[in-house]
Amino acid sequence: MLIKSRLLVLIIFLFCNFHVIAKDYYVHPKLGSDSNNGLTKESAFKTLSQVSKIKLQPGDTVLLASNQLFESGISLINQSGTKNNPIIITTISWDASETILPAIIDFKGETHGILLEDCSFIKVSNLKLTANGFNNPSILQKMRCGILVKKTSSTNMQHIVIENITINDIYYENYGFVRGENEVKTANGTQKYGWGIRVINDTNSLIDDIKILSCSISNVSHTGIKLTGNEKNISNIEISNNTIQKTGGPGIQMSGVENVYVSNNTVSHSGSHDDSRKWGRGSGLWTWGSSKVLIEKNKFLYANGPGDSAGAHIDFNCDNIVLQYNISAYNAGGFCEILGNNYNCSYRYNISVNDGHRVKGIDGAFQEGKILWLSGYQGTKKKRKGPVNSYIYNNTIYCDSSIVAKIAIDNTSRGILIANNIFYLEGDSKAVLGDQYKPDSASGDSAKNVFFKNNLFLKKENWPKNTGLMDVAPIIGNPEFRNKGGIEAKDYTPENFNLVHYKGINIDLLPQDTSGLLQSLKLEKDILGNLIGVNPSLGAIEPVTGND
Q1: I need a labelling partner for 243 at 20 to 30 A (CA). Which of 188, 261, 268, 295 fits?
Q2: Kind and range of the H or E element at 106?
Q3: What is the pTM of this model?
């Protein structure tokens, strides 16, 4: 009887674990055949369409031949690995002697290079994706995406990893297509575009745990990485160590998401218009309707466009968005932009270099560039409502003499802290109206609940009087930056040690704010990793003796 019981247990164990016996599927566009079973290099599949037909099991791996060109894309629908046995799509060397180079997927004319629809526990890595236009137009297609993660069912999706992917030249239209001049004036564009990586959830269920790591995205006609959720139904996201450049729209954009970590990315030339198929407008990063987002240690460079196009901006209906330890340089729209109905957001310990150089009315610009903008805009049909409890402290802001530094603070703002910043403005400065489609009111009323104190200005006139706000205890002087105009953090190390060292004040909660910032108001280190003392210094860098 005991032997039979043990045999039954063994049979049940083997049956329950049979599905985790993983398979490798090989694909080679020259040496393979779709009549093969794909289970060895000698019996490899030829096309990716064959991969899309397989019901993959946990632990299965799809292996694409190194440096080979594959036409068409991969579609995984209702496929799922497990936490310990994810499904993997990646590149493999066919010959042990060759250097592994990413397999190339050219999905020209198709909607996606890789589709992950209602899938969980999937990892995609070490591939190159491109799709420059179409051969035959399709009226059914609405866009073209390098990687599209999409939710359509009522069950949750979880754990998608996209790592070490190169995406370049993603255009819906063929070369030579010219967009109408008013397209760039629409909120997000109305026509068909190419996108890098998109995550879309328009259901009531959840996409949870997305990682986009060490990817390179360039020359897409709209956004590099875009997350589109609803009521925080995309959550627990990490976007780290990516390089995004020359996107026609924003570099990174997220809507309706929660619990996001964005770190160590370099975003340059967002809003590019060097190809007539590109949108031609975009901040390096922006959030909308999102909650609990930490954006740190990134570089946002050379954003272009007639509106918005800041280094990174917080659009309306957000809360707990914190930008810290970032470099923001030469962005047309500006440095700090917080729109309406935002709560408990912060820019702190960032360095801004020549941001906000755009001039309204020149080269089609319909908004002024601004180094600091608190707006009341929360939608075209809603009453103006400025941000609530905005903490702006210990930033270093440099503008050379060629720039008129502009500032706009909506009088419906409630709760503003501006302290310990360095405003090194070599040229003139002036107050302007915020103008997100409709100008802010110039009623003469001032923002409420303001703490504006202890900022360093190069000159007394650096802060325009007609903003409605004035520093009650300004400090005037030259911090003597090591290499002003550069785009490395260390370039803005103050060499006038005594002017800035320990001259900051500790940051406390604004009156009527019971929450503060999720990450705490007090930081332990500055942008270079130097320890912050009992009293902070002025600006983003603690001028430690001997600091390189």
Answers
A1: 188
A2: strand 103-106
A3: 0.95
